[in-house]
Design a protein that fits this description.
Blueprint: H1 2-19, H2 22-34, H3 38-43, H4 45-52, H5 55-68, H6 71-81, H7 92-105, H8 108-121, H9 125-137, H10 141-151, H11 159-169
Length: 174
């Protein structure tokens, strides 16, 4: 039950505080995922990543800081510790997370650049829709018009997205 996980997380936290063991911190944070205690993980994210230095620890810290709403911390962890990710490369899911953090922090141009790059590297309707949405939010009508031309080439584009693109771009590109 959730109460059992809470008790176990509390026990692991006590043991971590008394020993300082990075492995206990990691186990405690894993247990906090099960109890939705994103605050604890977010507060310990920097220590977790710096002491454990694994792909799993960084991913756990990124997920927790994002879920808790600590977007700047999430971006900082990515900037400072991305080398611990497997292969030293940001996977599409981590890049999507970064773009979402950038967007929520108001770093619109960075978020647009990341969304566009993700779409160009692995085209999909979902990635296109996210890229197009960011262009809409920033009222970049000229780029919306260019992107809308690309949308016409996508056979799986639904009528909602096509109509949305048409409404935005009709004055720019008939």
């Amino acid at each position: 039950s959730k109460a059992d996980f809470v008790r176990l997380a509390e026990q692991l936290e006590k043991e971590y505080r008394s020993t300082g063991s990075p492995q206990l911190l990691f186990k405690c944070c894993e247990m906090c995922v099960r109890t939705d205690d994103w605050k604890f993980i977010s507060e310990h994210a920097t220590d977790l990543v710096e002491k454990v230095r694994t792909d799993a620890a960084l991913r756990l810290a990124l997920h927790a800081t994002f879920t808790h709403g600590d977007y700047e911390l999430c971006l900082n962890l990515l900037r400072q510790h991305s080398a611990v990710l497997l292969g030293g490369q940001l996977s599409p899911d981590i890049r999507t997370l970064r773009a979402e953090c950038q967007q929520r922090m108001g770093y619109w141009q960075e978020a647009i650049a990341e969304a566009e790059a993700l779409h160009r590297e692995r085209p999909s309707l979902e990635r296109f829709a996210e890229y197009f949405r960011l262009l809409l939010v920033t009222a970049d009508v000229p780029r919306c018009a260019l992107a809308a031309r690309e949308l016409l080439e996508m056979p799986d584009a639904g009528p909602d997205l096509l109509l949305q693109a048409a409404r935005v771009t009709r004055l720019q590109d008939q």
